[in-house]
């Protein structure tokens, strides 16, 4: 027997999906019988002991199962999967074909989408975005304004909040500064970009140090 049921309380998403608030049909770790949770489009969105609470929404062909929990104002949609002991909360969104599992947590304003995976004890939070074929796992932390797409990350990628722009490895080979992406070696040769952006001498020196640090980190990771 399912541990929840759909109630008559409904909302409609901007994309036109009609969602139903769920309610516990038995007392369990998520609360007492009759406790109301978040919203799902259909019973098939929720499996096993999983739960959706607060104003969180799960819809489309998304599936939340195992002991996973989606809460706060989080959204899980598309063909996304959230399972294991995973937690998705805050204003986080998980969609597309993304998967969040293990003991992973996605929260804040984070976005996980595309074919991305977040697993293990990984944390994705703040305004971070993980997309494409990216794999974030182990004890990795992705946060702030970081964008990670492609390749696998078992450790936290380089992320620095500079005086003007955020600096981060968005893939194993590309360093993102602001909205532009280049290899660290290409960045070193791109002094004209700094001039176009009206960087001061101090700022040019600052970002040159960040780029050189990125090159050294790449060397360590390829040993």
Give a topology summary.
Elements: E1 4-12, E2 18-24, E3 36-40, E4 51-52, E5 57-58, E6 63-64, E7 69-70, E8 75-76, E9 81-82, E10 87-88, E11 93-94, E12 99-100, E13 105-106, E14 111-112, E15 117-118, E16 123-124, E17 129-131, E18 135-136, E19 141-142, E20 147-149, E21 152-153, E22 159-161, E23 166-169, E24 175-177, E25 180-182, H1 184-188, H2 191-196, H3 201-221
Parallel strand pairs: 3-5, 4-7, 5-8, 6-9, 7-10, 8-11, 9-12, 10-13, 11-14, 12-15, 13-16, 14-17, 15-18, 16-19, 17-20, 18-21
Antiparallel strand pairs: 1-2, 2-3, 22-23, 23-24, 24-25
Brief summary of the model shown:
The chain is α/β, with parallel strands linked by helices.
Question: Would you give an account of this structure?
Answer:
This protein has 223 residues and is of the alpha/beta class. Helices cover 14% and strands 32% of the residues. It has 3 helices and 25 strands. The protein has a 9-stranded mixed beta sheet, with no helix packed on it. The chain has a 6-stranded parallel beta sheet with strand order 4-7-10-13-16-19, with no helix packed on it. A 6-stranded parallel beta sheet has the order 6-9-12-15-18-21, with no helix packed on it. The radius of gyration is 20 Å and the shape is elongated. The chain starts with a strand and ends with a helix.
């Amino acid at each position: 027997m399912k541990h929840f049921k759909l109630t008559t309380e409904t909302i409609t998403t901007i994309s036109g999906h009609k969602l139903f608030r769920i309610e516990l049909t038995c007392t369990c770790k998520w609360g007492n019988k009759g406790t109301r949770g978040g919203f799902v489009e259909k019973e098939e969105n929720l499996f096993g002991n999983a739960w959706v609470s607060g104003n969180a929404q799960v819809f489309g062909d998304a599936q939340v199962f195992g002991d996973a929990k989606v809460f706060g104002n989080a959204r899980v949609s598309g063909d996304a999967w959230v399972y294991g002991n995973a937690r998705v909360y805050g204003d986080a969104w998980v969609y597309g074909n993304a998967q969040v599992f293990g003991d992973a947590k996605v929260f804040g304003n984070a976005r996980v989408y595309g074919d991305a995976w977040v697993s293990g004890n990984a944390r994705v939070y703040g305004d971070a975005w993980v997309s494409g074929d990216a794999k974030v796992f182990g004890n990795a932390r992705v946060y702030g304004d970081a964008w990670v797409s492609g390749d696998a990350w078992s450790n936290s990628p380089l992320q620095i909040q500079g005086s003007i722009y955020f600096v981060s490895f968005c893939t194993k080979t590309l360093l993102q500064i602001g909205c532009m992406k280049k290899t660290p070696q290409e960045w070193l040769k791109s002094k004209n970009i700094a001039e176009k952006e009206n960087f001061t001498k101090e700022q040019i020196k600052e970002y040159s140090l960040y780029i050189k640090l990125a090159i050294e980190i790449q060397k360590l990771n390829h040993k």
